[in-house]
Specification:
Number of domains: 2
Protein name: Thioesterase superfamily protein
Region (Disordered): 88-117
InterPro entries: ACOT8-like_C, Acyl-CoA_hotdog, HotDog_dom_sf, TesB_ACOT8-like_N
Oligomer: single chain
Distance between the termini: 41 Å
Domain Acyl-CoA thioesterase-like N-terminal HotDog: 34-124
CATH architecture of the largest domain: Beta Barrel
Largest sheet: 11 strands, antiparallel
Structural class: mainly beta
Order of helices and strands: HHEEEEEEEHEEEE
Domain Acyl-CoA thioesterase-like C-terminal: 147-278
CATH class of the largest domain: Mainly Beta
Number of helices: 3
Number of strands: 11
Strand order of the largest sheet: 2-3-4-1-8-11-10-9-7-6-5
CATH superfamily of the largest domain: Acyl-CoA thioesterase, double hotdog domain
Amino acid sequence: MDTHSQLTAAPPRAAIDDFLTAPPFETREAPRELWGFGGLHGGLAVGAMVAAMRETGAEGSLRSVSGRLHRAVREPFAIDVTADAETRSTASLSAKLRPVATEGPEGPGSSSPTAPLASATALFGSDAPTASPVLRPAAPAVPPWHEGGLFNPPPSFVPVAEFYELRVTGTNRPFAGGTDPGLTAWVRLTADDLPPDDLRLLFLVDALAPSYAAILPAPQPIPTVELSVHFAGGRAVSPWVLIEARTPIATAGGWITETINVWGEDLTHLAEARQLRLVRPAQAS
């Protein structure tokens, strides 16, 4: 029996890993199976840009990344990378994910003059130890993953959900009309039993339903507009990560600020993130 999962469904596909490890500077597709709310999953869009930055020779560990989704990514795209600055201990790079026309005035694959679909900046830095005190947020007191309740979003609403297993803790559920805008769950990719690296973590940090959804009575899109992640330097020990997400701010205009923390199965802190989301009108049935 697989000690890391209790699923007995058909063997999972490796679409997420294939996407994150694809040649970054070729024309890319945004397959519908990797969509979140109406377009390519935000964590995957940011992960693709980080992978392209690495391909240019960025050295050091990924310390932080901030990505913005300007428009839903549904069409073929390419990624451009710029080296912004470098010091003795850090390197800063930026990337733009731009649409690529399938047929243009210069033939197939010609560039479209439209604005970028997404953009990101990232900081890579040394992990050399220092004598300074270490501080980490404590993980919430929750049962282990195998005691959590299986709760994956329907692929018809969030297609990319078929590629991960999600086990919720506590009583909060998305779109259940509760009073607490928070969600906590164990999550893992189902393609293999590898601990997630930083590219996979960029996807997993955005894998839960928006925590704001816990106080909404029915499903409606709440897509990511901006995703910023700071990595804590820890390493996951198994495919499972524990994610706690909360929404402390929701404006009258539908702008949602969400805070997210991620721990490994051994409760080592892995990353902290903030998301800016926008509540969209409910889709007609």
